[in-house]
């Protein structure tokens, strides 16, 4: 349902002029990583079009669509849900790593879609006559995956129109210490992220904020399993994160609309909220 609505919005946005299209190309080509609390974070996230976010220092990627080289270089890929603008590039991600003779990747998906993803790979292997070597892990809410001795990832429940989940990345030292929480593309409904205490205490929280103005009401955003910036503002006192990175903005926005909305954020959000705006 959400994907259909997003595509409809894209058709409306076909009125964008050539100048904006050229600006988008320039932004995508020349984008640099955001530096947030000691972590470089890269990616591109436009609602209904594509979402991928990488943390190169941790060798992690979240969601995959058009398989940019920097996303392919990350060995561990975490999928939030199975909408095409978040999972569409999965076979190509594996195939390209094989082409470059890189180690077979490890892909973590919600357990509920693991069987479907296996069938997806079977179809592509049959058509491509290739092995598409990879390790596929189905992770359920509350379950953990060990990336390496000092890094664990735990899945937590998020709310969308189809099954979805977010991921919390923990830095493991003498005891489990939370360093980072990522949930690109795993949309919330009615900000039920508030039920996930660790996500709200993470050093960095990455979450979608598809709408930032009156383009869409809060109620309509909830119907599509998305979050409105006003909801984040309403619950500002609950976010203990050092930094919050917002992603997945509607393609109907101009860059200045997003920037103006964030610059107007009140305390305690002001100064610690960032936006992934590559492509706008």
List keywords for this structure.
single chain; 280 residues; alpha/beta; seven-stranded mixed beta sheet; 10 helices; globular; disordered N terminus; RibonucZ/Hydroxyglut_hydro; Metallo-B-lactamas; Metallo-beta-lactamase domain-containing protein
Give a description of the structure:
This is Metallo-beta-lactamase domain-containing protein. It comes from Salvia splendens. InterPro entries: Metallo-B-lactamas, RibonucZ/Hydroxyglut_hydro. Residues 75-249 form the Metallo-beta-lactamase domain. By secondary structure, the protein is α/β, with parallel strands linked by helices. Helix content is 29%, strand content 26%. It contains ten helices and 14 strands. The protein has helices at residues 2-12, 18-29, 69-72, 84-87, 90-99, 114-128, 197-201, 218-223, 229-234, 255-263, and strands spanning 34-36, 39-46, 50-55, 60-62, 76-78, 106-110, 135-139, 144-148, 151-157, 165-172, 176-182, 204-208, 243-247, 273-275. The strands form two sheets. Strands 1-2-3-4-5-6-7 form a seven-stranded mixed sheet. Strands 8-9-10-11-12-13-14 form a seven-stranded mixed sheet. The longest helix is centred in the middle third of the chain and has 15 residues, at 114-128. The protein is globular, with a radius of gyration of 18 Å.
